């Protein structure tokens, strides 16, 4: 049993606890009046827009779970390519909502989403298919990871905007590492050169290890395996991998062929 594997039911309580920790951290950052219009690491967004974005995303999850349980017809996946532009439109549309009202709405949405996730049984955690607006059908546990991405990465964005030195929570980063490989698989640039090659990715933390990553005409695949004989290995701590995958930083230590590692890291668009 691995309580740090959020893809398994054994990890459910852990990820829900860490999501709550990250959410409360973001609420505290967004509460001061002077924080509302403060810049963040997201270009053009203040704290207000980050809050609005998470409101929009979470309320989309409600519709997704309704559809999964027969309460509506799921639309086709919008795709990640246009996600950045659309989430910006959705966030900006809420700029007229007063700070307290929008924060109260976010907190209410958070508790409702926690209830939905907490009430999932063992069969549903990995067996209930829920239509994600951007990515299409996904197992229910992915929505817990989505909440963690929103609260952990966007609280990092708010802190980054302050200009103070800071870091990403180790617990959040460890839980997100497996999902970063999925995110990479889903964000390969259209028209990218997929002439086959392999690189190694070595990640620290409880969900880390050595991963052999293969690129080819079918996209990206990965597996835990020895990295012996590979021309390039990219080493990350858990937080650096998350922030690199989300485009918040360019991190990692390259051992071996720098040009090949650079080719790999530039195959993806960042969200």
TrEMBL record:
Pfam families: MDMPI_N. Keywords: Isomerase. It comes from the Bacteria. Gene3D superfamilies: dinb family like domain (1.20.120.450). GO terms for molecular function: isomerase activity. It comes from Nonomuraea marmarensis. This is Maleylpyruvate isomerase family mycothiol-dependent enzyme. Residues 20-159 form the Mycothiol-dependent maleylpyruvate isomerase metal-binding domain. InterPro entries: DinB/YfiT-like (IPR034660), Maleyloyr_isom (IPR017517), MDMPI_metal-binding (IPR024344).
């Amino acid at each position: 049993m691995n309580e740090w594997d959020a893809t398994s039911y054994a990890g459910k309580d852990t990820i829900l606890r860490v999501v709550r920790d990250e959410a409360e951290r973001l609420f505290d950052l967004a509460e001061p009046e002077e924080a509302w219009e403060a810049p963040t690491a997201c270009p053009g967004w203040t704290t207000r827009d980050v809050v609005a974005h998470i409101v929009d995303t979470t309320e989309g999850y409600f519709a997704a779970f309704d559809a999964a349980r027969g309460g509506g017809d799921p639309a086709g996946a919008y795709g990640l390519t246009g996600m950045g532009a659309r989430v910006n439109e959705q966030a900006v549309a809420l700029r007229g909502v007063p700070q307290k009202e929008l924060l109260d709405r976010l907190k209410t949405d958070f508790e409702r989403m926690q209830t939905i996730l907490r009430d999932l049984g063992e069969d549903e955690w990995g067996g209930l298919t829920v239509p994600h607006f951007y990515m299409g059908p996904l197992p229910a546990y992915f929505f817990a990871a989505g909440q963690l991405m929103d609260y952990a990465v966007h609280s990092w964005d708010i802190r980054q905007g302050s200009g103070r030195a800071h870091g990403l929570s180790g617990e959040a980063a460890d839980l997100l590492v497996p999902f970063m490989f999925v995110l990479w698989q889903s964000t390969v640039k259209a028209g990218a050169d997929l002439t086959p090659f392999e690189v190694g990715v070595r990640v620290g933390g409880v969900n880390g290890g050595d991963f052999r990553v293969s690129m080819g005409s079918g996209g990206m695949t990965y597996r835990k395996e020895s990295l012996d004989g590979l021309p390039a290995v990219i080493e990350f701590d858990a937080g650096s991998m998350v922030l690199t995958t989300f485009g918040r930083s360019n991190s990692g230590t390259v051992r071996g062929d720098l040009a090949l590692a650079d080719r790999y890291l530039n195959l993806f668009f960042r969200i």
